[in-house]
Amino acid sequence: MNIKDIKIALPGDGNRTITIETGKLAKQADGSVVVRCGDTMLLATAVSSKDAKEGTDYMPLSVDYQEKYASAGRFPGGFFKREARPSEYEILISRLIDRALRPLFPDDYHADTQVLVYLISYDKNVMPDSLAGLAASAALAVSDIPFNGPIAEVRVAKIDGKIVINPSAEEMKKATLDIMVAGTAHDINMVEGELHECSEAEMTEALKAAHDVIKTLCKAQLDLSALVGKTKKREYSHETNDETLKANLRKICYDKFYKIAGGATADKHKRGEMFEAVREEFLATLTDEDKDAKKGMIKRYFFELEKEAVRDYVLEKRIRLDGRKTDEIRPIWSEVNYLPGAHGSAVFTRGETQSLTTVTLGGKLDTQMIDGAVFEGSNNFLLHYNFPPFSTGEVKMMRGTGRREIGHGNLALRALKPVLPKENNPYTIRIVSDILESNGSSSMATVCAGCLALMDAGVQITKPVAGIAMGLISDPKTKKYAVLSDILGDEDHLGDMDFKVTGTKEGITACQMDIKVDGLSYAVLAEALEQARKGRLHILGEMAKTLDKPAADYKPHAPRIIQLIIPKEMIGAVIGPGGKVIQGIQADTGATIVIEEIDGKGHIDISASDKSAIDAAIARVKGITTLPEVGEVYEGKVKSVVEFGAFVEFMPGKEGLLHISEIDWKRLDSLAGVIKEGDKVQVKLIAVDPKTGKYRLSRKVLMPRPETV
Fold first, then answer.
1. By mean pLDDT, which of 385-399, 453-467, 653-667 is the weakest?
2. What pTM was estimated for this model as a whole?
3. Contacts of 536 by beta carbon, 8 Å cutoff, 6+ apart
4. Kindly report the CA angle at 496 between 494 and 498, in degrees rounded to 5?
5. Most confident of 39-43, 271-275, 568-572, 612-616
6. Are 164 and 196 in contact (CB under 8 A)?
7. 3-state class of 614 per DSSP?
8. Is the Cβ–Cβ distance between 656 and 635 less than 8 Å?
9. DSSP 8-class letter at 280
């Protein structure tokens, strides 16, 4: 074995050190490393085919992050007891790595490439997701795979007013800012995170702190690459070119593309037809043999020329594909309570992007159980994003939830989570966004529609939230650039940046940024954030025209949940032997009851859509849990009559003796004709036997005492 390693000290208290080691494990991969911090260890491998498949004109990269249950000394759940399909958490980490790596592969490198990252040892004080991007990049760094990196990825948080890099899970409980940042030694190229109404200045400060550490981690990878002798990358030739064809296409098509780029139409499909007509006109000048032989080449040249014409027009004229100015937002309309059967609903439409979103309210039985290698517990706030093919006018196979849908849903969840009620919220909340039309910024439409649907449902959010997607077109030669507000789908594909920012009027709640070019300065970033803030305020104003605050009450058909707290020792009495009591209450009243012990007390959730059912269940529970008090008067029911008196149930499950001498002031020799089983009778609790706990009742003390003669 030829083992090489390098150590990097992280800033802050605790003398934390990251070690990157290669040459011991997985040596048949093109590149493999083990990254360790504390007792958390990640194994990352990178393998790339020597040649590209015929006809491939893109980067076929696959990235997978998986957490081994053995790393935390746990068994997987389920019947098979083995790691199966990735959890949403693992998919989100895979996406973070992918988004940081993908832009840095050479444009003309098209070989199948696979990066795998495994959590093989887990230390609860070291979060593995903040090390995954570093591990993936290091595996590429010690290989001969062409890559314009390295990159590093860190978590930056603000805790007690201080910036902390890669904090522990315990420290994160107090964080007011939580973002993952990736980049090279020169630039930041990926950001994703959640913020608690932070200012644009606070976010910029966090990015700068993260980049300082990223520079150190990138240098360490270059040093490791030099140690193992992998500074020279493999040679490849995945593209052929015809410069004459390219020049001819430019001569015939550029001006026509440029004209269409000048806002010829705001209709996406019509604009596509116009571009396609130019292509068909050019293709008609070629022989059938050239069309077939150079099909892939022609497709690539068309895309490059269209991209160039659109970008040139924006930089020169400051007008966009649909005719808007750079900071102009598309027309917005919205509606709430569109679906009468849902607990809350909203339609939000911005330009050609539309979301139909619902809110469903449930109880504790509806919470999502989480059983991961690292995270266990439950989740009572869910947001699901669906992107059916008809939203873009396409026909595609429906293959279940994709990674993009999980990623967009998670971003919208992060955006809305900070404004949910923190206290007195007994509900499990599920938001579902179905994208019915899409031309850019569908995740931001989900945020806006989700906010409106929450308010329509009567969920008392602290403030409305809106989201906007920002773009960038830049020319490194002329130094010209244009920051674009509310980008179209085409502007995302043809531009240099996709920067999504969500927030309230006061600050940012979530962000996601992907940068495809080098050299985004902090000045341009600050301009984009300020332009995003203005756009967000405009969108919030448009939303307020529909609904500006939460409804005062839930919908009539929404479940009502009442919470009771009882002494710990009364939990068993409410449940009863084998659950007999609680099941009986549910059967008799129609309410759903969930009881659990929290902090040494019994917490009971009683839910039903019918108020009378809740009231009946509350009365039954209180009857069981309320302790009888001597001197109190109760209305009881005679359960049985005996020679010396009657046994009366004066509270649910509690019976006392009403002695014959306590029934009336006059002497009774028999109870015949006086009291019988089933009678209701008012009684007073006069004593509790200290030894047996038996209750003594009296009726006569509630009756006027006759005058003695």
1. 653-667
2. 0.88
3. 466, 467, 468, 501, 502, 503
4. 95
5. 39-43
6. no
7. helix
8. no
9. H
Residue 709, pLDDT score:
41
**One-letter amino acid for residue 170 of the chain:** E
Element (H, E) at 209: helix 200-228
pLDDT attached to residue 626: 79
77-82: average pLDDT: 87
Amino acid at 548: D
CA distance 686 to 299: 95
Mean pLDDT across 550-555: 94
How far is CA 494 from each of CA 109, 287, 516, rounded to the nearest angstrom?
19, 30, 10
Residue listed under structure tokens 């400051």: 318
For 512, other C-beta atoms within 10 Å of its C-beta total 26
* pLDDT of res. 13: 67
Q: What is the mean pLDDT of residues 193-204?
A: 93
User: Of 337, 330, 328, which Cα lies nearest the Cα of 449?
Assistant: 337
Contact between 585 and 620 under an 8 Å Cβ cutoff? The reply is yes
For residue 264, give every residue at least 6 positions away whose Cβ sits within 8 Å of its Cβ, in sequence order, or none. Answer: 271, 274
Short-list 327, 380, 339, 683, CA closest to 527: 327
Q: How far is Cα 181 from Cα 497, in angstroms, rounded to an integer?
A: 15
What would the two tokens of residue 688 be?
A: 């509790």
One DSSP character per residue, 212-258 reads: HHHHHHHHHHHHHHHHHT--SPPP-------HHHHHHHHHHHHHHHH
CA-to-CA dists, residue 638 to 348, 557, 623, 673, 674, angstroms? 62, 39, 17, 14, 12
User: CB-based contacts of 284: which residues, under 8 Å, 6+ apart?
Assistant: none
Q: Give 326's Cβ-side CA count (13 Å radius).
A: 19
Give 692's pLDDT tier (boundaries 50, 70, 90): confident
Q: What six digits make up the tokens of 385?
A: 């994003």
Whether a cis peptide bond, with omega within 30° of 0, leads into 556 is no
For tokens 């009403």, the residue is: 658
Residue with tokens 């040093």: 223
Helices (H), 344-470: 403-416, 442-457
Token pair for 690: 């200290």
User: Could you tell me if 222 and 141 are in contact, meaning their C-beta atoms sit under 8 angstroms apart?
Assistant: yes
pLDDT of the residue at 399:
85
Distance CA 591, CA 582 (A): 10
Tally the C-alpha atoms within 13 A of residue 346's C-alpha that lie toward its C-beta. 27
- Is 32 within 8 Å of 16 (Cβ atoms)? no
Lowest mean pLDDT among 248-257, 361-370, 621-630: 621-630
Contacts of residue 431, defined as CB under 8 A and 6 or more positions apart, other chains included, come to 357, 358, 359, 382, 383, 384, 412, 413, 416, 450, 453, 454
**Residue 707 pLDDT greater than 80, yes or no:** no
Contact 662, 646 (CB under 8 A): no
Q: Return the half-sphere exposure (C-beta side, CA atoms, 13 A cut-off) of residue 323.
A: 9
Output the 3-class SS for 497-523. Answer: EEEEEEECCCCEEEEEEEECCCCCCHH
Element (H, E) at 166: none
Rounded Cα distance between 601 and 425, Å, is 18
Closest CA to 410 of 129, 59, 115: 129
Return the pLDDT at 318.
Answer: 95
- The single residue listed with the structure tokens 């003796």 is 657
Say yes or no to pLDDT of 643 above 50: yes
Q: Where are the alpha helices (DSSP H) in 511-669?
A: 522-544, 571-575, 580-589, 611-625
User: CA–CA separation, 338 vs 566, rounded Å?
Assistant: 40
- Whole-angstrom Cα distance, residue 314 to residue 432? 36
